Amino acid sequence: MELDISLEEPWPEGAWENLAERAVDTLTRHAPELDNDRLSASLLFTSDADVHALNREWRDRDKPTNVLSFPMLERDDLLTLAADGPPELLGDIALAYETCAREAAEKGVTMEDHATHLIVHGMLHLAGHDHEISDADAEAMEALEIKTLANMGIADPYGDRI
Predict the structure, then answer these.
(1) Does 117 show up as a binding residue in the annotation?
(2) CA pair distance 99, 81, nearest whole angstrom
(3) Domains in the chain: ranges and CATH
């Protein structure tokens, strides 16, 4: 999969592109439908203000959030996508810096680990997974996140749930 990555203020300079590519590469081991050279996705590292505007415009939610995903393919189309053919846009993801930084601090994890989790989470949404449909769907999506992050040496982000 090809990633088009844009880094905007207030995200600091860093290895965000490498982090994102590593997260997606690792995720494809657990979500093989994403392991297709025809696929591309855009990833925008941006501000709370920009994510707030996107959330308000596209989801009718007047607040910032940590990550937004805008899928372009239906899950059935992704699952049947042949290896040969023209490029296909899987979708777009936006991460909000201030919310991500606050959440990382609250969880006592690094910004890099939290951003990695949110990238994996967002990519799974682009792949048609949805934790809001049912408890079973949420558990399946979380299991993919946990396995992917574990392969990257990142602790279970849901481990504090009772």
Answers:
(1) no
(2) 35
(3) 2-151 (3.40.390.30)
Q: By the 8 A CB rule, do 1 and 90 touch?
A: yes
Closest to 75 measured CA to CA, from 157, 140, 148, 149: 140
Of 19, 3, 27, 1, nearest in space to 100 by CA = 19
131 marked among binding-site residues = yes
SS3 153: coil
Sign, Cα dihedral of 44, 53, 127, 23: positive
125 is in an annotated binding site: yes
pLDDT of 133-142, one tens digit each? 778 888 999 9
The residues, any chain, with a CB within 8 Å of residue 64's CB and separated by 6 or more, are 48, 49, 51, 52, 55, 96, 98, 99
Q: Are 149 and 120 a contacting pair, CB within 8 Å?
A: yes
The pTM of the full predicted model, rounded to 2 decimals, is: 0.95
